[in-house]
C-alpha cells in the first residue's frame, strides 16, 4: 500500500511541476554611481523530468528553455547626472566707488561690491558650495560645478556695443582720480575706478561662459553671480550701474557660435527696473524674445522713459518679439508675478519654443529692497525659476542684475540656486494679484495676442481682430455702436417716459472760446438729462456717474459676450426718485428736481474719439462738464435752496474738483456730498487762471 501511495504522490507532484512557472532572481551588474544593483525575476518554463539510463541520470534542456539575461544598460538621462554651474570670481569686487566723504563709508553706494560676496557666502552656509575660505575655489562640492571665468574679448563685446563705448570703459584703467570722479559725476547713475574695466570684462565673460556651459551640456543649468550688472547699458553708453550689457552680449555670441543648436533665445528680465539696454540690443531681432516685468509708473520710474511701456513690441523683423509688463506702482508681490507668469510668460515662451532661456535676475523686487519697493519672497523667485526649468529642455542660465538689500539678495539667490540644483520651490502664500495687475496683464494680452496665438481666447483667427480693420467698416452704412450708448439711451428713455425728463444741451458755439479743454464725446444726446420743472425746484439732487457696469458671460468657444445672460443694474436715480416720493410727507410742498450726467468712458481706441488726434479724457471731462452745469444752469436757478451732489465711480472726483474751485459759492447751497466709491477726497487737477490769464496747475 505504501509503495503504491508514494507512486501516486510522485505522479501528482510531477503534474504540479509541469503546471507551475518557476521564478529565478537574477542580480544585475552594479550601477555606475555605486548604488545597489537591482534584482529581476525571470520566468522559467518547467523542465522535463530527468531520465534514468544504465544507472546514470541525463537531463535534456531545449534551446527555448535556456535562460537569457539582457546585459545592463545605462538609462538615457542627460539632465539628472549633471550639476548646476556656478560663476563667481572675487576680482569682480574690485569695481567700487571712490569715496569722497566719510558719509559714503556709512551709507555706501547701492551697487555695493559686497553684493556678490553675500550671495556666495549664503550658498556656502547652505551647503550648496564647499568653500570654507570663501575665496572662490575651483572644487566646490557635489551639487554645483565651478565654471571657469574669463574676460570677455573686444570682439565679443562689439557684438552689442560700439567701439566708442568700449574705448571709454577701457580708458578708465589709466584715468587719474579726478577724472574718474568727473566721469562718475557726468554719467547716468554709474561710477568707475581703475578696476572697473577688468570687473566689467569678467562679468560679461562670466555670463558668456555660464550660457556656453549649459549649451555644451557640461552643466544642466547655471547661476552667474556677477557684477557690475548689465541690462541698462545701451549699445552706445553705460547707465544705471551697468557698464557692459552682459546678457545681451552673451545672447549675441551664443547665437553666433552655436547656429545649429541655438536658433532662438528667451531673455526674461525680472529686475524691478526696465532693461532698456537689453531691449535696444534685440529690438529688431526675431531670434530673441525679450520679456521684462518692471515698475513703470507711466515712465517716471528709472530709467524714466516710455521705452518700457506695453506698446513697445519691437520693430521691423523683431516686431512681436518684445514684451513689457509695466507695473503702475510699487508694492507688487508674489501673486502679481505669478499671475503674469501664468497668463503671459509661460504660454508665450512655450509657443516661442526657445533653445535657451536666460534670466536677467535682479533681486530688487524682493521684499526688503528699499529701491524696488516691492515684496517678492524668496519662495516666489524659486517658483518662477521652477516654472522656467520645464521649458527649453531645462537649458536655463540665471544671471545676476540688480538687488541692493544684502540680506534680501542673499536669501533670494539661495532660493533660486536650490531650485536650479533640483529642490522643489518652497511653499508660498498664494496672494491674489492687485486689481491694477489684472488690468496691466489684460492690456499686455490684448497687445501681444496679435503675435502669439496662445494668448487668444476662443477661436484664434476671429478673436482680438481689430474690428475697425474689418472689410466694409469704412462704408457709411456699416455702423459700429459702442455698447455703452444704447445702455444710456435705455436709461434716458425710461426717465423720459416715466418721469417726463428733458435733455439739457451743451452749447459749444464755434465762434466762442470753448469751456472744455478736451474734445467732447461724439454722443452728446442724452448726456445730461433733468426733470421737467428743474428751474423752479427748491431742492435739486444731481448725480454724475460713469457708464453702467455690465455683468456678462463670455462664450468659451468664440469669446463673444452672451447677451441673453448679461445684465446691468437699474439706474440708481430711478430708485431714488421713487423712494423720495414715497418718503415725502403729504403736506410737504418742497419741490424736488433731478439732474443726471453720464460721463462716457472709453477703454479701447475708437476712431474719431480716442484716437491720437483726440484729446478726450473722461476724468477731466467730468470735472469740466460739472463746472459747465454749475455756470450755465444751476447758478441761474432762483428758487434753489438745497443741492445734493452724488457721484458714482471715477466721476465722483469731479464733485471734489467743483467744491475746491468754487467752494465759497457752493457751500451756501450744498447740503451733502455723497460718494459711492472709496477715492481720495482730493482733486486730480486744479486749473486756475490768474490775473494775467495764464493757467497754473496744482496736482
From TrEMBL:
GO terms for molecular function: histone H3K14 deacetylase activity, hydrolytic mechanism. It catalyses: N(6)-acetyl-L-lysyl-[histone] + H2O = L-lysyl-[histone] + acetate. Residues 483-661 form the Arb2-like domain. One of its GO terms (cellular component) is histone deacetylase complex. GO terms for biological process: epigenetic regulation of gene expression. Keywords: Chromatin regulator, Hydrolase, Nucleus, Repressor, Transcription, Transcription regulation. Residues 109-419 form the Histone deacetylase domain. The keyword Methyltransferase does not apply. Residues 1-18 have a biased composition (Basic and acidic residues). Residues 1-60 are annotated as: Disordered. Pfam families: Arb2-like, Hist_deacetyl. It is an enzyme of class 3 (hydrolase). Responsible for the deacetylation of lysine residues on the N-terminal part of the core histones (H2A, H2B, H3 and H4). Histone deacetylation gives a tag for epigenetic repression and plays an important role in transcriptional regulation, cell cycle progression and developmental events. Belongs to the histone deacetylase family. HD type 2 subfamily. This is Histone deacetylase. The lineage of its organism: Eukaryota, Fungi, Dikarya, Ascomycota, Saccharomycotina.
Amino acid at each position: 500500500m505504501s509503495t503504491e501511495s508514494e507512486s501516486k504522490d510522485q505522479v501528482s507532484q510531477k503534474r504540479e511541476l509541469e503546471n507551475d512557472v518557476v521564478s529565478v532572481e537574477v542580480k544585475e551588474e552594479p550601477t555606475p554611481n555605486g548604488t545597489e544593483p537591482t534584482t529581476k525575476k525571470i520566468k522559467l518554463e518547467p523542465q522535463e523530468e530527468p531520465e534514468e539510463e544504465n544507472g546514470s541520470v541525463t537531463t535534456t534542456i531545449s534551446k527555448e528553455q535556456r535562460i537569457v539575461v539582457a546585459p545592463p544598460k545605462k538609462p538615457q538621462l542627460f539632465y539628472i547626472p549633471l550639476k548646476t554651474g556656478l560663476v563667481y570670481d572675487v576680482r569682480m569686487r574690485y569695481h567700487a566707488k571712490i569715496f569722497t566723504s566719510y558719509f559714503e563709508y556709512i551709507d555706501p553706494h547701492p551697487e555695493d561690491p559686497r553684493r556678490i560676496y553675500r550671495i556666495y557666502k549664503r550658498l556656502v552656509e547652505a551647503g550648496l558650495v564647499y568653500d570654507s575660505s570663501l575665496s572662490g575655489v575651483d572644487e566646490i562640492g557635489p551639487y554645483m560645478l565651478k565654471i571657469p571665468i574669463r574676460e570677455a574679448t573686444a570682439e565679443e563685446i562689439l557684438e552689442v556695443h560700439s567701439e566708442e563705448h568700449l574705448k571709454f570703459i577701457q580708458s578708465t584703467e589709466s584715468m587719474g582720480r579726478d577724472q574718474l570722479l568727473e566721469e562718475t559725476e557726468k554719467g547716468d547713475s554709474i561710477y568707475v575706478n581703475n578696476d572697473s574695466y577688468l570687473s566689467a570684462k569678467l562679468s560679461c565673460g562670466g555670463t558668456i561662459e555660464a550660457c556656453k556651459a549649459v549649451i555644451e551640456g557640461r552643466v544642466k543649468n547655471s547661476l552667474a553671480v556677477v557684477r557690475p550688472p548689465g541690462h541698462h547699458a545701451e549699445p552706445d553708453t553705460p547707465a544705471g550701474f551697468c557698464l557692459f550689457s552682459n546678457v545681451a552680449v552673451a545672447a549675441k555670441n551664443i547665437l553666433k557660435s552655436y547656429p545649429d543648436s541655438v536658433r532662438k533665445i528667451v531673455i526674461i528680465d525680472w529686475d524691478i527696473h526696465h532693461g532698456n539696454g537689453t531691449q535696444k540690443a534685440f529690438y529688431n531681432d526675431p531670434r530673441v524674445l525679450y520679456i521684462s516685468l518692471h515698475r513703470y509708473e507711466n515712465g517716471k520710474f528709472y530709467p524714466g522713459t516710455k521705452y518700457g511701456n506695453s506698446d513697445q513690441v519691437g520693430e521691423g523683423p523683431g516686431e512681436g518679439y518684445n514684451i513689457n509688463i509695466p507695473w503702475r506702482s510699487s508694492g507688487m508681490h508674489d501673486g502679481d508675478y505669478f499671475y503674469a507668469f501664468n497668463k503671459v510668460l509661460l504660454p508665450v515662451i512655450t509657443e516661442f519654443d526657445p533653445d535657451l532661456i536666460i534670466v536677467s535676475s535682479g533681486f530688487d523686487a524682493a521684499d526688503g529692497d528699499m529701491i524696488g519697493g516691492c515684496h517678492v519672497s524668496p519662495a516666489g523667485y524659486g517658483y518662477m525659476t521652477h516654472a522656467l526649468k520645464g521649458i527649453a529642455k531645462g537649458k536655463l542660465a540665471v544671471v545676476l542684475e540688480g538687488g541692493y538689500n544684502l540680506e534680501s539678495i542673499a536669501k533670494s539667490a539661495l532660493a533660486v540656486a536650490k531650485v536650479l540644483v533640483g529642490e522643489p520651490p518652497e511653499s508660498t502664500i498664494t496672494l491674489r494679484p492687485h486689481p491694477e495687475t489684472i488690468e496691466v496683464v489684460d492690456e499686455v494680452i490684448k497687445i501681444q495676442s496679435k503675435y502669439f496665438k496662445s494668448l487668444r481666447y476662443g477661436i484664434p483667427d476671429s478673436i482680438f481682430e481689430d474690428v475697425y480693420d474689418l472689410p466694409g467698416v469704412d462704408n457709411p452704412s456699416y455702423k459700429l455702436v459702442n455698447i455703452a450708448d444704447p445702455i444710456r439711451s435705455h436709461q434716458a428713455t425710461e426717465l423720459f417716459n416715466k418721469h417726463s425728463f428733458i435733455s439739457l444741451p451743451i452749447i459749444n458755439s464755434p465762434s466762442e472760446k470753448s469751456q472744455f479743454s478736451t474734445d467732447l464725446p461724439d454722443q452728446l444726446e442724452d448726456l445730461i438729462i433733468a426733470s421737467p420743472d428743474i428751474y423752479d425746484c427748491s431742492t435739486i439732487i444731481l448725480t454724475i456717474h460713469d457708464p453702467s457696469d455690465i455683468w456678462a458671460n463670455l462664450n468659451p468657444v468664440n469669446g463673444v459676450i452672451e447677451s441673453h445672460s448679461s445684465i446691468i443694474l437699474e439706474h440708481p436715480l430711478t430708485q431714488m426718485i421713487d423712494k423720495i416720493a414715497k418718503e415725502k410727507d403729504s403736506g410737504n410742498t418742497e419741490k424736488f428736481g433731478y439732474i443726471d450726467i453720464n460721463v462716457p468712458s472709453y477703454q479701447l481706441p475708437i476712431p474719431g474719439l480716442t484716437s491720437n488726434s483726440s484729446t478726450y479724457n473722461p476724468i477731466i471731462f467730468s470735472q469740466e462738464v460739472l463746472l459747465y452745469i454749475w455756470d450755465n444752469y444751476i447758478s441761474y436757478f432762483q428758487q434753489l435752496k438745497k443741492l445734493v451732489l452724488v457721484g458714482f465711480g471715477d466721476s465722483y472726483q469731479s464733485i471734489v474738483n467743483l467744491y475746491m474751485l468754487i467752494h465759497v459759492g457752493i457751500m451756501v447751497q450744498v447740503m451733502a456730498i455723497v460718494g459711492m466709491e472709496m477715492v481720495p477726497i482730493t482733486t486730480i487737477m486744479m486749473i486756475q487762471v490768474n490775473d494775467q490769464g495764464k493757467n497754473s496747475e496744482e496736482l
